[in-house]
Amino acid sequence: MTGRPLDVLEEALDTPVTVHLKDETAHFGVLAGYDQHMNVVLDPTELEGSADDEVEDTTIIRGDNVVSINV
Prior knowledge:
With 71 residues, this protein is mainly beta.
């Protein structure tokens, strides 16, 4: 995968990704959507290090908080 960031996200739709945030947390889930601001939708989502392995149905992450997205 090479190219512009939004092209990479387009290729990664419906695949598992890890989103690392500014607060040093990471969210794991399937990339269900994104927009031009790199706001992302993960479905379902698991928070790294959560004590009870809680899984959320859908999580929307504001692009301003994203440090990296690993495919």
